[in-house]
Amino acid sequence: MITARNLSKSFGAIRAVSDLSFSIGKGEVVGFLGPNGAGKTTTMRIVTGFLAPDSGEVEIDGVNILKNPLEAQRKIGYLPEGNPLYPQMLVSEILNFFADLREIQGAKRQEAFDFAVSSTGVAGIYNRPFGELSKGLKQRVGLAQALLHQPEILIMDEPTEGLDPNQRAEIRKLILNLGSERTVLLSTHVLQEVMPVCNRIMIINKGSKIADGSKDEVLHRSQEKNKLVLTVEGKNVVAELEKVKEIKSIENVKEQENKVSLTLTVEPGKSLQPQLMRLAFKNKWIVWEIGTPPENLEEIFFELTQGK
């Protein structure tokens, strides 16, 4: 649905996007991550046709957005960063304004309104001025205008920025529902936003892509893959583990009654579980837990964007 090839964009001496390529298929919900200043907003403006790249091209469902911008943009619903709508206008006036821009007329207009209003839950604020709404409700209105023409592709730039935790949860739920029937590209630097709603993560830094894959694929890039957590009940646990040459370090040792919990750093590529089970059997330990520690997207994000 979205294909970007070798996109580059500079503002004076600042290189915002550098030879960036990616492809997003139908039905994918992609979290577009990066620290502030990574090039996310610039990329989204290029993808939606609001900014021309210095080089490269974008196709929306096979349509080149520079050569045929209106045809390509008809396939896109776009919620830009900051949701810049007119504060003095009523919600109903905003939706009518965008329906006019989209040239939605007649019976299709009522159908479009019914779909957008019911999908985003803005019926209760339909006749209220946009400027008087909370940030969470404003984001709902922004999504409603993006959905009026029932696009196959939804592109959202920082949709939860500035929202409180309850508002974030509401918007995440809304995005999850919308993503079940369309292709979604969602940019954010708030890492917890992507885990509940996205099935793919793409990370950029300094305008270049540094990671791209399913949540599991990106998570498994962590250095934590060389660690094991172990909880056993028995005697001389640490002393016996120190004899295993493949174990490079033993950390986070916690003892409670007869149980010992700890974290092992092992040689890359080594699978120690069978050896540890044999060691437990030999020493008559009871194994309560053995496995890899839970992955932490925030740590991985830090490792990747700091160049570690």
TrEMBL record:
Q: Which ranges carry the ABC transporter domain?
A: 2-231
Q: Name one GO molecular function term.
A: ATP hydrolysis activity
Q: Which PROSITE patterns match?
A: ABC_TRANSPORTER_2 (PS50893)
Q: Which spans are transmembrane here?
A: none
Domain of life assignment = Bacteria
Question: What protein am I looking at?
Answer: ABC transporter domain-containing protein
List keywords of the entry alphabetically. ATP-binding, Nucleotide-binding, Transport
PANTHER family, per database record: ABC TRANSPORTER, ATP-BINDING PROTEIN
Family to which the UniProt record says this protein belongs: Belongs to the ABC transporter superfamily.
